[in-house]
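Holo prediction — adenosine-5'-tetraphosphate.
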Amino acid sequence: MTTKRILSGIQASGSLHLGNYLGALKKFADMQNDDAERFYFIADLHAITVWQDPEKLLSQTREIAACYLAAGVDPQKSTIFPQSAVVGHVELAWIFNCVARLGWLDRMTQFKDKAGKDKERASVGLYTYPVLQAADILLYKATHVPVGEDQRQHLELTRDVAKKFNHDFGVEYFPVPETLYQGPGARIMSLRDGMAKMSKSDPSDNSRINLTDTADVIASKIKKAKSDADVLPEAEDGLVGRPEAKNLVGIYAALSGQSVAQVLAEFGGKGFGAFKPALADVVVDKMSPVSERLRALLKEPDEIDRALMIGVEKARAVAEPVVKDVKKIVGLWG
Ligand code: AQP
């Protein structure tokens, strides 16, 4: 029987926000009692696909590690480590660069979104980003990958790489991982635009709730959040065509542990003047303990490094034999 292995990563490209919390961190913490091995990494190699100030990159890496811990991911139950500390990610990525097809990468919408109109100036790394992601996952022979909805296309590519590798070399070596993006919070949108996802790299800080925001800042961002002039509907289908209302109600539901229908049963017929303060209360109530733990951890960088070193050892012990096997399968020397 294959061991259930859960794996996911978060880019060290800036401070984390409510979307990362609901789409990723909270799910990781909630899944800790499953009978599984868990690997959570800080994707610093992914982060440098766009320019990162070297000093900031280091502190962002520690900050993401602190976010895992503050959100309740227990280093005794989960292996938490920086991606660049395990060399196998890069070794496998090169081999997978030779397995994946250009046509597959050409279809990736995240590259198009991030490279924008000036794609000639984007890094090659940004283009091959999903191949590195396939290496991250398959290096640990992960069977389950919890991520937000935005990663759906990349995860499909990982599955294609696993299948093509097994097929090309006539082996049953890599499991084809299952993706887990269901559940509340899988897609949290910007507070300024209900059609764009909440993102670290959005230039407007008011577009997101950062995990480091204080209660006052959270309340003020929710007050300023884009909404519309109508009252909230009584039923979910009334949210169709109202992306901002849908997003705010979704955030309330995900944080309070209710369904959207339950939230609308309470707030249907009420305007944003009544709903926004209630939403601010829920966000502050649920996020404050996480922010407090995070602020305390950030004052102890050595402690964060110690937790990471334990994770690095455990990750290397799993990754090294896989790289050895793969080199043998491919016919590489040594
Ligand atoms: N808005 C979101 N809603 C739900 N889940 C989200 N995730 C990210 N944004 C949302 C999930 O968080 C995990 C880590 O994502 P990431 O930081 O590695 O990369 P990203 O998806 O590119 O996140 P950002 O904030 O948009 O970063 P930048 O701006 O640097 O590109 C993933 O599971 C992701 O699905």
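READOUT: The two ends are 30 Å apart (CA to CA).
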